[in-house]
Amino acid sequence: MLLLAFSCSTKSGRTDLATDTLIDTSYVDSASGGDPMAEMADSFGSSELPQQIDLPRLKSIRRDRSPERQPPIVGGETIPINLIPWQVLLEFDGDDICGGSIIADRWIITACHCVSSINDVNQLAIFAGLTNKRQDKLTAQKRQVVQIVRHDGYDRNNPNSAFDNDIALLKLDRALDFGEKVTPIRLATPADERAGITSPDKKVRVSGWGVTTENGTPSNPVRFVDIDVISNTIAASQYNRPLLVTPNMLAAGNPRGGQDACQGDSGGPLAANFNTNNPVLVGVVSYGEGCGRANYAGIYTRVSKYIEWIQQTTNIGIAGGSDRRTIARADQ
Ligand code: ARG
Predict the structure, then answer these.
(1) CA 229–ligand 1 middle distance (angstroms)
(2) CA–CA separation, 253 vs 76, rounded Å?
(3) Ligand 1 first shell, C-beta below 6 A
(4) For residue range 283-321, what is the model confidence (pLDDT) as tens digits?
(5) What CATH number does residue 289 fall under?
(6) Cys staple from 289: which of 11, 13, 296, 317, with CB 3.0 to 4.6 Å?
(7) Are the C-beta atoms of residues 27 and 65 closer than 8 Å to each other?
(8) Considering the entire predicted model, what is its pTM?
């Protein structure tokens, strides 16, 4: 069944990969105490796995009744889009499905799970310069997507890599008009990483229109929360399965819980240097164990690992002065 196919249980509940977070599975609460990876293998291995289930559908969010789960994006606040002008909203067939970030005038970066089951690219659009998605869609810049480039290492059916490489690129039908509400964000490079841009306790900003209450209502105004980078070592010990926290991932959160991304924020930006004139995209919202739980960091795709792939796919220069030598040195 659809919900079960999505759920990857862990000992304390489920770990949300991708869009499963958009469909509350907490009430399914399968097999606690079982082996999470075996369960994951089971669920991912099901030949009945429908191909459409990966598509986020905010309209189908159900409330989470799990008492241990914190309200999503706790501690978040609304923000005008000009303070996070790289943030975009993805719309599929009229549904607001995910976030994304502007990396060039015709390219958006997002999570692969947001778009992995979309066949009809014509139904996919993005909104830039949007603060309130109920009020501002007509004045925002809307673009159609003409091409989806999914990372071919993303394979949610493979229990050995289901959480890995959750990254995709969207090509737009025409260029965005850059301005104070619509601006690309520079991608973090391996050199930025060496210089400590994601060293633990560095503050990073995640944002999006994801759900904001335990009742699971997505936010109309875009929201943000500033959280700490958490080391992969700590995150790996929290999730307790190496495959859930690979070097291609980046963890961030508030160790006490209460501040996190949640359903609907996927694909959106995790930015460092967000209050400077040189903001840097370090992560893409990917998954988490619930939302805002203490001792479960949110997990992000680590952008610096994909610089070469992004450069080759889009042919854009990597902004921020990275030259070809930097790109050639990128480690993935
Ligand atoms: N996978 C979710 C989505 O599709 C985002 C999950 C992020 N979760 C978290 N706890 N950080 O919107």
Answers:
(1) 16
(2) 12
(3) 16, 18-19, 21-22, 56, 210, 260-266, 285, 287-288, 291, 298
(4) 999 999 888 889 999 999 999 999 999 999 998 877 544
(5) 2.40.10.10
(6) 296
(7) yes
(8) 0.78
